Amino acid sequence: MDMDNKPNPPRWLPVDIVLGRQRPAVNWMEMESGGLSEPFFQQTIEKCRRCHPPAKERETGLEELLAVVGGAQLPIAPIGLICHISRCGSTLIGNVLRTAGALVLSEARPVERLFGPYTSTVWPFPLDSWKDIRKELLTAVATAFARLDSDEPANLVIKFSSPSLLGLELIRSVWPTVPCLVVVRDPIEVVVSHLQDPGGWLRMKSDPLAASERFGFDGLNIRDMSSVEYSGRVVSRLCQSALTNWHGACRVLDYAAIDEAMMGKIATFFGLPWPGPDREELARVMRTYSKDAGRSREFRRDEKRKQLLASESLRQDVECWTQTPYQELKSLQGL
Q: If we measure between CA atoms, which residue out of 202, 185, 189, 225 comes closest to residue 310?
């Protein structure tokens, strides 16, 4: 056997952080190199659990994850960060960056768990300690996945879920110089998309306490809000967070500007080679529905259809909440 081509051994990687206990825990999975090829992290985890035999799993305390960085093990920063306001092409961007050699950690649970609001029943630490521990855990998760395929750091790109955009201050405090892309879209199209197929933050409306804590809606009666008003307020909060935490290493991209040429600019922004090594694979990804792990659904742009589905009252309500922060973000667009 050619030892230079010997496959890397499986690695234990954090796949979830379990909270709400007296002692938080970390779930680990033994993962083969070449993983994270699905559009979303959880799709990869479910695939590993369906394997025969299924991937090995174990549970530890937070200490083992924090120990990923320490001693001779220096932290490894990602090469790029992707934040978004939802339903605006971020998953397609992640899929395309894989063709350029990126390892994309897409909305991974061990990352997303760190962006919920602080409560002592969830995190058994004082508030000041919690702030520092979150930073350490975020650094450790990134470092663990950057070593997935070898001891040489991977070109890791972290794509966060849309609510995590509210934690952009935390993200930039950990990686202030890492290129960060904020993807936006006409809020009318975002809201129409969620009304047709409710995503996580719209489903959260059924739990007013959780929604209020996550989006800072203290003093507002979420139960009495229409789904349109609630969605408009959420998108507004996401846009405002992006504006508040904006600085030189950030760029804004609007969904309407996404095409193959723009993908090349994004890759260059993250320091990746472009075009990627497989032009045929790039073309396939661009014409495939981004969230389909089976890669069989065709992608079709839907801006016009979503605009046609928006009633005049919906437009007025959504624009009431979102127009100013969205237009301010659009004015910052440029790669």
A: 189
Answer yes or no: are the C-beta atoms of 141 and 109 closer than 8 Å. no
Q: Which residues make Cβ contacts (< 8 Å) with residue 76, sequence separation at least 6? A: 142, 143, 146, 147, 153, 156
Where residue 3 falls among pLDDT bands split at 50, 70, 90? Answer: very low
SS3 for 159?
Answer: strand
User: By C-alpha distance, which of 133, 329, 154 is closest to 244?
Assistant: 329
Classified as helix, coil or strand, 52 is coil
Checking DSSP bridges between strand 11-18 and strand 25-31, what pairing results, if any? Answer: antiparallel
pLDDT at 276: 63
Full residue range of the structural domain in which residue 283 is found: 8-330
Residue type (1 letter), 241: S
50 residue type, one letter: R
Q: How confident is the model at residue 32 (pLDDT cuts 50, 70, 90)?
A: confident
pLDDT: is 316 or 247 the higher one?
316
Q: Find tokens 């992006």 and name the residue.
A: 242
Is residue 185 situated within a structural domain?
yes
> Is there a domain that residue 205 lies in?
yes
> DSSP string of 167-188?
GHHHHHHH-TTS-EEEEE--HH
Q: What is the pLDDT of residues 252-308, one digit of tens each?
A: 999 999 999 999 999 999 999 887 656 788 888 999 999 988 888 988 889 999 999
Count of structural domains, the chain? 1
* pTM (predicted TM-score): 0.94
Q: Identify whether 54 is part of a domain.
A: yes
Residues 194/318, Cβ–Cβ less than 8 Å: no
Output the domain CATH number for residue 67: 3.40.50
User: 279-286 and 90-99 are packed helices; what angle lies between their axes, rounded to 10 degrees?
Assistant: 170
Length of the chain: 335
Domain membership of residue 1 (yes or no) is no
pLDDT 10s digits, 202-238: 999 999 999 999 999 988 899 999 999 999 999 999 9
**Cβ-proximal residues to 15 (8 Å cutoff; 6+ apart), any chain:** 27, 28, 29, 45, 57, 108, 109, 110
